[in-house]
Amino acid sequence: MRNLSRLGKAFFLLLQIQLAFVVTPTIEGAEPSRPNIILLIADDMAWDDCGAYGHKTVRTPNLDKLAREGMRFNRAFLTASSCSPSRSSMITGRYPHSTGAEQLHWPLAPNQVTFVELLKRAGYWTAAAGKWHLGEAVKDRFDLVKEANPAGFRLANPAGPAPKADASGASGAGEWLPTLRARPKGKPFFLWLAAFDPHRNYEEGIIPNPHRLEDVVVPPYLADVPETRKDLALYYDEITRLDDNVGELLAELDRQGERDNTLVLFLSDNGRPFPRAKTTLYDSGIKAPWLVRWPKQVKSGSASNSLVSAVDLAPTFLALAGIKAESSFQGKSFLPILKTPKSVIRETVFAERHWHDFDDHARAVRSERYKYIRNYYPDIPGTPPADAVRSLTFQAMRRLRDEGKLSQPQLACFTKPRPEEELYDTEVDPHELRNLAGDPKHLTQLNQLRKALGEWQRSTGDHLPKSRTVDEFDRETGTPLPTRSFERRPPSNR
Known about the structure:
The chain has 494 residues and is of the alpha/beta class. The chain has 13 helices and twelve strands. The strands form two sheets. The chain has an eight-stranded mixed sheet, sandwiched between helices. A four-stranded antiparallel sheet has the order 9-10-11-12, covered by helices on one side.
């Protein structure tokens, strides 16, 4: 009888240990009390346009503080440099061509699994606020969705200024604080908080102390003329407004006493909306600011040079909550990096380019040092998005092109045909200005990345579309063409 009692106690102890591992995993899984998770998404912000990544003049005190109090990722990448495909990839943990929402404005289908409903099923309160851009079918994955008024964001009159949104909706962050305050107490929560900033269109006077022309840092692939500087200064202003909203959100988190047990991750959906950046596969388009603060687990002031991808968000957030990732997810958890910044979870990252206002199809693979790009439609130029075509910057570049005053890198967005293959050494050429694809000295790197891209395409079912998608805007002026469609959905025979 005594032995039976001992066996019973041993069994009960073993059961407790097993439950502990299921419910309260460590950093390889999750924080014992299951941390809250907040994902902050900027709209069209370049990775290096904030103080945390070394910019000397853009005013981002709150993002800089977030970096000081957490970990800065120096090699974080998106799967696309186009708004809705990038966001669809984040929420599903799948590459854009696998989500069925790879072209701009294509909505996610209801059969797509997102990490949000898995968190919700496990007891998390889930909410989204701000810019949405994912379609109607997956809104029910959240307990609450507060979509910001997009009137000031969507193109209404392409020839004139953007229409005004309501005051709280101009930045897209007006519902962030009310959403955080609406959470039920006593439950872990996940918040998907997205801004419109710093997406075009731009206007003056949105912050009390606007950036000056002399504050601007012009990358070498843009023309350094007053029009470009004014354009970039207005873009900086929207980054500062975004930073203010981040600061208010973090202060509210402190007031609620949830700072220590909340993982906050800030990133952007793609690069700055300027020529040779957004919609391209250069680092200026797909490299992301990626800041993580989690006081209980992440060392303040730390940094990692390990590669991470936006498809890694879903498995990471689920691991934080102690939830097994679905087989549909194509990413990898980066929790090991939060513990040990030098941990390596992947050797390469992949990105893709599809239709975005204009026809295109391209793929990229990047290692820590080298970038390989395959252009499948080399017959067309690398035109930036339509709103960037209408910008002060691009129109000035058109004039300078006609006057023969642009350098070869600055002519890239006009040049056709483009090379079918591009290879860059990002260590010595961070702006990717010198194509090494034809250099025999780099044949080894070229073949390695060609092979890696081919294997990824086979494993993920990536292939050329059956037909090409027509342009909806003029590539020189950005004005709408008769082919423009306001409702875009994937064709049934693609």
